[in-house]
Amino acid sequence: MAARWWMFGAAALICSQIAIFTSWSDAKFGTVANVLLLAGVAYGYFTQGPASFRAQFERDVRAGLARPIDAQVLTEVDVAPLPDPVQRYLRATGMVGQPRIRNYRIRFRGRIRSGPTARWMPFEADQQSFTDRPRGSSGSARR
User: Fold this and answer.
1) Using one digit for the tens of pLDDT, what is the confidence trace for 55-107?
2) Tens digits of per-residue pLDDT, 40-55?
3) What is the 3-state secondary structure (H, E, C) of the chain?
4) What total of structural domains would you count in the chain?
5) pLDDT tens digits, 121-141
6) Is the model's pLDDT at 143 over the cut of 50?
7) What's the confidence (pLDDT) of residue 74?
8) Residue 124 and residue 107: Cα distance in Å, rounded?
9) Are 45 and 78 found together in one domain?
10) 84 and 47 share one domain
11) What's the whole-number mean pLDDT along residues 16-20?
């Protein structure tokens, strides 16, 4: 619900502007406040609305998670060509005999800057990856 605040702002803006038009001579300067509200609503729509990168990321993730998964099991034959430390790790963690991992989500939090002397900016990013389609993954940065 918090991501849709811009919808309520747009509705309030329309109602406010209609009220201003009905009493234009007395309330015309209220349009200035509505222009400021419009800037906020537009920002919300483009960053959180249905055409935003965030919305596309969420659609891609839903589609990926809805795909049928071939539940192949990790076998000793699969593990044999791997380096010894990897083999030991997979056996120690009980992965041999379990279904292979087909997707995972990673959440990052950190700081980033645009140059060596620029100030640090906090960031958060979500990445959802699907191993059955290794050519790409869906990722999105926030903030």
Assistant:
1) 888 888 898 888 887 778 999 999 999 999 999 999 999 999 999 888 889 99
2) 888 888 888 888 888 8
3) CHHHHHHHHHHHHHHHHHHHHHCHHHHCCHHHHHHHHHHHHHHHHHHHCCCCHHHHHHHHHHHHHHCCCCCCECCHHHHCCCCHHHHHHHHHCCCCCCECCCEEEEEEEEEECCCCCCCCEEEEEEEEEECCCCCCCEEEEEC
4) 2
5) 999 998 998 887 666 545 544
6) no
7) 92
8) 7
9) no
10) no
11) 85
Flag whether 130 is in a domain.
yes
Q: Which domain holds residue 99?
A: 71-135+137-141
Residue type, 139: G
Q: Based on the domain organization, do 75 and 131 belong to the same domain?
A: yes
Give domain status of residue 56, yes or no: no
For residue 139, what are the contacts with CB-CB under 8 A and spacing of at least 6? 57, 125, 126, 127, 128
8: CB partners within 8 A, 6+ apart: none
| Residue where the block lists tokens 């539940």 | 71
Residue 26 within a domain: yes
Residue with tokens 């038009």: 21
Let me know if residue 58 belongs to a domain: no
d(CA 141, CA 143): 7
Residues 85 and 128 placed together within one structural domain of the fold = yes
Residue 57 corresponds to which tokens in the numbers above?
């990321």
